[in-house]
Amino acid sequence: MPPKYKSSNRANVLAAWRGVDTAPLEVARANAAKSVGEVLPGLLKELRMDARQGEAELVKVWNSQIDPVITAHAQPANLHNGTLFVNVDNSAWLAEIVRYRRKEIIERLQNSFGKSVVKKISFRIG
User: Fold this and answer.
1) Which is nearest to 105 in space by CA: 61, 51, 72?
2) In CATH, what is the architecture of 50-125?
3) Which residues sit opposite 123 in a β-bridge?
4) Mean pLDDT split into 10-residue runs, the chain, 126 residues
């Protein structure tokens, strides 16, 4: 704990004469600075960086493992509790993907991430 800042009598009299409240300044001086190592883990958790990194990896694998014709019309939106939500640009492509390509897509993603990460896929127009 850093030494507590003690204001001088002169500073107190000048602050009272000027009508300035020095309490916030004293509190700010009393708080110790924290190292980056102490602040960074909490900040990363607050910003959900691990989830964002996972979503970025998912998009990267999607674009490299899935047929470019499909990726031109469908992109992953998010992954929640093992369900991958994919936005498709129109109903014709939605029907095509759901009927003929769903199994192929889920197998490729499960090969890349494992069956516990991507359990099922939900396609929607969006």
Assistant:
1) 61
2) 2-Layer Sandwich (3.30)
3) 86
4) 62 79 71 82 85 85 92 92 93 93 93 89 92
